[in-house]
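Ticket #394: bound-state structure for tryptophanyl-5'AMP.
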Amino acid sequence: MAGKKEQHVDPWTAEAAEGESSIDYNKLIEQFGSQRITDDLLDRIEKCTGKPLHSFLRRGVFFSHRELGLILDAYEKKQPFYLYTGRGPSSESMHLGHLIPFLFTKYLQDAFNVPLVIQLTDDEKFLWKDLKAEETHRLAYENAKDIIACGFDMNKTFIFSDIDYISSCTAFYYNIIKIQKCVTFSQARGIFGFQESDNIGKIAFPAIQAAPSFSNSFPHIFGEKTDIMCLIPCAIDQDPYFRMTRDAAPRLNYPKPALLHSIFFPALQGPKSKMSASDPNSSIFLTDTDEEIATKVNKYAFSGGRDTLEEHRKFGGDTKVDVSYQYLSFFLDDTEKLEKIKKDYESGTMLTGELKKELIVVLQKLVSDHRKRREAVTDEIVKQYMSPRPMNFD
Ligand code: TYM
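RESOLUTION: The complex was predicted; output attached.
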């Protein structure tokens, strides 16, 4: 008899184990071999930056890391480091889940005042999806607008499309082929589960996501320096790429990148899977109108409420699986209000409809504020962020 299907998380899939209501993140830390972010580490970040912790750290949205301590050591010794994150442009607009790493990266850039590079993997999305290369390249520029709307410092941020940058920067391509040479097909298959039928572009791609972890991939920012440390904020689905990168680094005499991992912003259908652009019904997009947001939440947001009003009043709702509550825990700033909602919902005083109403207000404001900022991002502004240029870096 076949055993129970285990949970599965990789860059393309995030699924809870069969019969479980959500992804088990403790198990993931064990499987991936990363470290939990401890209270001591949180204190250290606060002390180091002299800024209040981001709510994503206080609330455990960013919950796991690799060698963050080394970055803090460097920062305390006034040694430089940089941030690296990215996006695979597969849809016209990004969704709420994609905002998580970008909002957090904005906080990190402000708190540490460091350079940031953002990779748009238009090549990856061409290789994986049924999309033309010219289309993913165009989507990269569309998505750049959503990213810029998060408010990154133009003087310290370089956004690039792989298709553009590979053909214009020799140093980047040198790093890519050096990484490709030190990872065998069998290692890549072990990490990413490639099949014989996969196209060969997919097999070579991980080196392209690895290369920005090394500072000499950006000569216009770091010159020929190879030893500037790199910190990568992302959801934990991207970790396989950076396990590979960290294995390759010492063989190339480069420092290993450090990582900060977030949990997933769940699909509307529940915390068994992540919000994903491949399934539009699972997602609220940053281009959705107020009406679309209200309809999606009312129609699809999985409820932890009871079957009948009577039962709900008696036993209360389950916030661990209730998507509306979970979304609020990401985006409702007011912690006291969030705690009150939790208490009221779990005790049955608050009903699912009332909870959804609270969420709709929060999301409509978040998305409409974002929309306004995105509308202000002109093609000229995109061009500036995406042109390789020197940065004040010391
Ligand atoms: P992509 O476009 O799938 O996702 C972009 C970023 O968003 C995170 N993410 C999520 N976070 C929380 N909840 C979700 N539901 C959710 N879905 C996606 C991803 O972890 C990622 O941080 N191959 C990458 C692009 C990339 C990259 C990087 C990402 C290139 N270099 C370096 C992070 C760091 C991709 O397709 O991401």
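RESOLUTION NOTES: The radius of gyration is 21 Å.
TICKET STATUS: resolved
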